[in-house]
Amino acid sequence: MTTTAAVGGKRKRVSSGLYVSQKVYVKSRNGNATKIVREHYLRSDIPCCSRICENCNDFYKPGPNGQIPNPILSESPLDLKSLNIGKHYILVDTNIVLNAIDILENDKVLYDVIIPQTVLNEVRNQSYPIYLRLRTLTKNEDKRFVVFYNEFNGETYIPRKHGEIINDYNDRLIRETAKYYNNHLSEYNIKTILLTSDKANKELAQRENILSFTLNEYIDLLPNSIELKDMLPSTENFDKSINEIKYSEYYSSARLMGGIKNGSLYQGNITISSYNFLEGNVNVNNLPKPLLILGRENLNRAFNGDQVVVELLPKNKWKKPSSQIIDEETINKNELGDNDEDEVLISDKERRLLTQEAIKEQGKDNDDENKIMPTGRVVGIIKRSWRLYVGQLSPNSINKDTDLISNAPRNVFVILMDKSLPKIRIRTRRANDLIGKRIVVAIDSWNSNSKFPSGHFVRTLGEIEDKDAEQEALLLEHDVEYRPFSKNVLSCLPKEGHDWKVPENLDNGDIQLKKRRDLRDRLICSIDPPGCVDIDDALHARKLPNGNYEVGVHIADVTHFVKAGTPLDQEGASRGTSVYLVDKRIDMLPMLLGTDLCSLKPYVDRFAFSVLWEMDEDANIINVEYFKSIIKSREAFAYEEAQIRIDDEKKQDDLTKGMRILLKLSKKLKRQRLANGALNLASPEVKVHTDSETSDPNEVEIKKLLDTNSLVEEFMLCANISVARKIYDSFPQVAMLRRHGEPPATNFELLNDMLRLKKGLSISTESSKSLADSLDRCIDSNDPYFNTLIRIMATRCMLAAEYFASGNFSYAEFKHYGLAVDIYTHFTSPIRRYCDIVAHRQLAAAIDYEPLHEIHMDKSKMDLVVKNINKRHRNAQFAGRASIEYYVGQVMKNNQSDQEGYIIKVFSNGIVVLVPKYGVESLIKLEVLGDVNSSSFDESNYSLTFVDKSGNKRTVSVFDKVNVSIESVLDDFTGKRKVQLYLK
Q1: Which of 58-67, 218-227, 248-257, 680-689 has the lowest mean pLDDT?
Q2: Shortest CA distance to 442 belongs to which of 127, 670, 809, 171?
Q3: Which of 22, 49, 59, 237 shows the smallest number of beta carbons within 10 Å?
Q4: Rounded Cα distance, 338 and 349, in Å
């Protein structure tokens, strides 16, 4: 057992303006005491960040580029006549930031805000996404949010008292900062107001003569308070009389941690079914199958994506997943509506639905024990996944006879665009104005006596179905950062702008420039999708005198412009990746870099990071080199252009010959990969064509994959593998890598059962090689698309690939299952992925080009980076798919199309059909198919029998090819336009 106790402290001056505070600790382990002295340096020259302060004037002198270092507090802040407050700055505590970040970001509310270092640290520890939003605010020169380093200022730092809990100590540090500002700026007649939602902290502040308000109280003093009231966190907004349900209280932190440690409780992220909002599952490392969570009470207020703690239910309560589609729209149909007093009645219908299904299941012979899953209930939330959500006000929330003529605040419900999420209760005075609008809301809490979470209104996007509003909604729904780059970020770009060029004189005294290898004599080209302007990569190949081949992959040298630790780098790390939508690209880095200075455009000199192999005739790597280079691409080809040139036998120039070498070697590399067990999976790939002037969608087509697509892919994979080995050898604890875990065999049980029953086929999961071989055998001689369909469905059974720092896993766990390689990273797209930027910096350090910045050598900081980029990468993928879905809906808005589709899921009250032509899948509910009362569901055969609209009895099963009519309809419940299918 180890114990540590602080036994004293003292402060001494060590130089002019610099003090050191010593903390003495005694650390005891097994009776042996060790004295530890920690020094905490304090300064007397930390500026207050106010432009009006003459004592801190030196800080605000413009630098060499004419810019003031940071946003600073105004010399003429808001002057409030109310309560004779006068001119003042705002100082916020941690809870204000955590609970009201939306109000802080609003352009109409708070200006000249002081963020104590104590608050910044607490926010970072409790919510990294909110910390990033707060950091963005501190770069906003118009809002003027400043960070004051109170814990390093000799006048504001105070030692912790013996036995003082950390929250009380932090509150005391914050109050000390408020007192400092009041004294420091007293001669300028500027006060400092402490905003806090902690009652005790407010009372103590008032006793210490600090002007202090809650956020609600302060907003009451502002001239536009009525409008701002709607944006208050619901903790300050709602009455406490709601009593709709009684959820189980969460276990205490001690009980949760103890249960996880002794194995009686399980921890993981919960995923709510997109077809049944009353069903979720949690993947747990120690169990062969995911834990199934059924019913509102067992879900116990868990949100999709929350990190939860689950308690296993007794084995006699284990069940199969629900075979029924259940959403709030179904439950609410023919019910009383969304008024507060009616909500409690809806649970009766839920219970009836679930009970009826359970009775049906009990009547069957239980011959499929493999479908039984362990069930559990949520007993605690480790971390919420809450973010900003987009939806519409429920029309049933408004009593049109009374509410539309009243501005009195009332509780209403917001139906979110994501049907797997519950409605959110907000309080607003503007219900009349918000009907028919696409609005943004935030969640504040979910009390155990409330059937729904409580939140607050953030802002309006526009009318439902307005193109701009729906596009912004899509980005917000997938948490994509799309705001313009700040001045602080843009100031990091080269001053020459578009006129920047590679220096003509390579021997100009620049040591790093001398280290670059000049490859402008190589016949290099790029091959990308049509219209690509952010060209990350280029290639070349030539035959060597010894009969082998020189093959080069050249990647845009983004890190030459994006230096570690700069605002530009921090913004790239925060965004994580570029996001590609149908009609636009949301850049990770400013356009000047992405589409100009870094882009490997043809006919101009560019800095690159090169990987150069010597390969033999069989594409075996004989030697590999890594170096920074200068290149000049000869051409920028689209895939089809490159394919045509390679196939044209009349073309015998050296550039074309080099491309033919690349194609030949790429085919051999692919054969080697597939022989090693690499998977050839699939996903629906479509392209939406838009009008060049209006950007309106007008056509959808399936993407054509050519040999040149594979050519580029193979050499990018090869470069990523080579770089991964090099950076891991040099940085075994912090190398930026990417892994893909082996999926549990249980993930394929359902697909295998369907295949065996319907097609007499099966998928082997013993290894990636056996899986790849078995997928090759899944062929229907009468249907060439069937194999692609099975690959699409198999992809959904896989685990997601993830970025990681190498020190977090053993080498055996580095394996990328899908590629069948032992180590892998992303190096080849630094313009659009932050992982690649880190890999570039690590590779540069590994070849002694330049030292590695400390932020990439700190394991804890690397963990934060990989966590964020994993999230951003997933969000970007979902946003891209949602954009295609939205535009397909727009294409079909004024058109009706008949297409072939495939049934991929069968429920007791509906089916899911995939349409390859448009790459979309859609749910067809039983009421759309035909007569609900005549239906019969055969779960063991994955089939549904019903009487269709024409009066004919019909049976459909999984894998059936069906003809469907496709239309675009507006979902009345969510206000979201969707593709609706009808069986023909």
Answers
A1: 58-67
A2: 127
A3: 22
A4: 14
- Given a cut of 90, is residue 122 above it in pLDDT? yes
| Domains of the chain, first to last | 2-43 (no CATH), 57-229 (3.40.50.1010), 253-383 (2.40.50.690), 388-477 (2.40.50.700), 487-736+818-882 (no CATH), 895-983 (2.40.50.140)
Q: Which residue has the tokens 């299918």?
A: 981
What angle do helix axes 834-846 and 567-575 make, rounded to 10 degrees?
130
Q: Give the Cβ contact number of residue 62 at 10 Å.
A: 9
3 state SS of 301: coil
- Counting DSSP H helices and E strands in the chain, the numbers are 26, 40
Residue 755 has pLDDT above 50, yes or no: yes
Which residues, at least 6 apart from 864, have a Cβ–Cβ distance to it below 8 Å? 128
> Please, which residues have CB within 8 angstroms of residue 858's CB and are 6 or more apart in sequence?
734
Query: How many Å apart are CA 701 and CA 699, to the nearest integer?
Result: 7
Residues 6+ apart with CB under 8 A from 183: none
CA distance 668 to 657: 17
What value does the CA radius of gyration of the chain take, rounded to a whole number of Å?
Answer: 31
Angstrom distance (rounded) from CA 697 to CA 65? 45
Cβ of 885: how many Cβ atoms within 10 Å? 22
Rounded percentage of the chain residues whose pLDDT exceeds 70: 86
Cβ atoms of residues 228 and 109 within 8 Å: yes
The secondary structure of residue 799, as a DSSP letter, is P
The values of phi and psi at residue 716, to 5°, are -70, -40
Tell me how far apart the alpha carbons of residues 86 and 63 are, in angstroms, rounded to a whole number: 33
d(CA 540, CA 662): 7
Q: Is 172 helix (H, G, I), strand (E, B) or coil?
A: helix
Mode of pairing for the β-strands spanning 517-518 and 621-632: parallel
Predicted local distance difference test score (pLDDT) of residue 965: 92
Q: What is the tens place of the pLDDT at every residue in 44-93?
A: 888 898 988 888 876 655 544 445 556 689 889 999 988 889 999 999 99
Residue of 949, 951, 981 lying closest to 968 (CA atoms): 981
Report the range of poorest mean pLDDT among 106-120, 442-456, 756-770, 886-900. Answer: 886-900
Length of the chain in residues, anyone? 984
Cβ neighbours of residue 177 closer than 8 Å, sequence gap 6 or more: 91, 114, 116, 118, 148, 150, 156
Euclidean distance between CA atoms 392 and 387, whole angstroms: 16
Q: Structure tokens of 891?
A: 């294409």
Report the DSSP beta bridge partners of residue 454. Answer: 425, 445
358 in Cβ contact with 296 (< 8 Å) = no
Q: What is the model's pLDDT at position 564? A: 94
Pairing outcome for strands 265-272 and 212-213: unpaired
Q: Two tokens at 342?
A: 């009616």
Reading the block at residue 720, the tokens are: 């990523």
Q: What is the mean pLDDT of residues 770-792?
A: 92
- Report residue 820 as tokens: 């069948």
CA distances from 973 to 274, 417, 430, 916 (A): 15, 9, 20, 27
The half-sphere exposure of 147 on its side-chain side, counting CA atoms within 13 A, is 19
